Every structure is written in structure tokens, then in C-alpha cells.
Amino acid sequence: EAGVAQSPRYKIIEKRQSVAFWCNPISGHATLYWYQQILGQGPKLLIQFQNNGVVDDSQLPKDRFSAERLKGVDSTLKIQPAKLEDSAVYLCASSLVRGPRSSYEQYFGPGTRLTVT
Amino acid sequence: KQEVTQIPAALSVPEGENLVLNCSFTDSAIYNLQWFRQDPGKGLTSLLLIQSSQREQTSGRLNASLDKSSGRSTLYIAASQPGDSATYLCAGASGTYKYIFGTGTRLKVLA
User: Fold this and answer.
1) Hey, are the CB atoms on A105 and B34 less than 8 Å from each other?
2) What are B16-38's pLDDT values in tens digits?
3) Are A45 and A60 spatial neighbours (Cβ–Cβ below 8 Å)?
4) Between A102, A104, A108, which is nearest B93 by CB?
5) Does residue A72 register a pLDDT over 90?
6) Is there a contact between B101 and A93 if contact means CB atoms under 8 Å apart?
7) Hey, of A4, A57, A105, which one would you mutate to test binding to chain B, going by the most B CBs within 10 A of its CB?
8) Is the per-residue pLDDT at A1 higher than 70?
9) Which residues in chain B are contacts of A102 at CB distance < 8 A?
10) What is the pLDDT of residue B27?
């Protein structure tokens, strides 16, 4: 079974530029998560999708970050314009819904390391 | 609001030692508690998932327990090896299966 795919793996941009990250979850996984992990900290949830609907985006800085999951499969996360404090690793995870509270085990992709200069 | 704390933040032990990593959470209405391993510059690898109806899970030298009433989970690593050196993260899911992560425990096993 193929894992969660993310691209690019690394990205360096200047502040005020825009950037986009792509995630392809494990086939059949209905739930998709985007996390931001700043060096030395645990991952922080940015947005959670169930199929192509947003479940939680309470910690997404909506003035500069946007995300979509068309057709309930692949997802893109965009930052426009980027700030220095956006330097972090952006992680995508997915989970399979088997029923109410019976699973939701998360599987993570390798992440995209973003450096904003 | 769920908060997750991991203690200690860093741990260094000699090879062969048994060790315990701690994870505390504030919201006892937790559905899942998942333990991960993260190697430098890598993504997260799932180690164990404990669902709310379970009290513990085992995989090889790893054993994780969950006590919802006290708001604690522990990860026990038996006979530690240098290859176990990594950061260990716990994450609790509640509400809409929103996962909240701790800040992790950086483990170094000395040969």
C-alpha cells in the first residue's frame, strides 16, 4: 500500500512570495490533515478535511493561508504572501474512517520543509 | 480545550535500559491516543494507537497504556537500543478527531 505522498520536499522562497504544497493521501482515506511543525515543537493542526469538506480550520491563518481538497482526494495548501515565521515543516496526514470512533489512525507523509528568507 | 504535555523533554540512557515516556492530556473525553516516532528531518511514523475502549497496546519492545481518568498515557520501551534514538510524540484525538500533539521527548540511547 502506497503511503501519503507530498511534494515538494524542500522549498526556499523570499518573504512576500507565494508557495503551494501538494498532498496525495492513502487511497480510500476520507480524512486529511495539514500540520505545521516549527523546529523543536510538536505539529500544530492547520486544517482537517473529511472528504472534500472542512471539519476544522480554527488555527489556519486565513489572511494568508488557504487549502482545498477537490474531489475528496488530493489537497493543496497555499501561503500568500509568506512571512519569515512561516518557516517550518508542513506535514500532511490521512486516516481511514471505518465507523464512529473505531479508527482514525493517522498516517503521515514525509513533509515539506519551507524556508522563508 | 485539549492540551498535551510530554515529560521529560529530553532523555539520555545507556543501551539496554528499560524506559518510560510520559504523556498527559487535559480533556478526558479522548477517543484515540497515538504515539509516533520522528527521526531528524523526517515525517512521523506511527508506533501505537490506543482507542478509548482499550487500556494498552503492544508492538515488539513497545508497550503503550492509556488511563483516561488520570489523563495520562505512557510509552514503555524495553531493552533500549541506539536505533531507538529519535523524538517521540504523543497525540490525543477528541471532538471531531482533531489531534493535539505534545512537544515530544528527544531520546538518545548511548551505545
Assistant:
1) yes
2) 999 999 999 998 888 889 999 99
3) no
4) A104
5) no
6) no
7) A105
8) no
9) 51
10) 85
Separation CA A76–CA A108 (nearest Å): 15
- Decide which of A35 and B53 is more confident: A35
Candidate from A42, A106, A109 with C-beta closest to B104: A42
Strand A10-13 vs strand B62-67: parallel, antiparallel, or unpaired?
A: unpaired
Lowest mean pLDDT among A39-43, A85-89, B4-8, B40-44: B40-44
Residues of A in contact with B98 (CB under 8 A): 45, 48, 55-56
Tell me the residue type at A105: E
Question: What is the C-alpha to C-alpha distance for residues A87 and A114, in angstroms, rounded to an integer?
Answer: 5
Which of A20, A10, A25 has its CA nearest to residue A108? A25
Using CA atoms, how far apart are residues B77 and B62, in angstroms rounded to an integer?
Answer: 5
Which of B58, B110, B36 is CA-nearest to residue A111? B36
* The pLDDT of residue A100 is above 90: no
Instruction: Quickly list DSSP for A52-97.
Output: TEEEE-TTS-TTTEEEE-GGGS-EEEEESS--GGG-EEEEEEEE--
CA distance B49 to A97: 14
Cβ <8 Å between A43 and B45: no
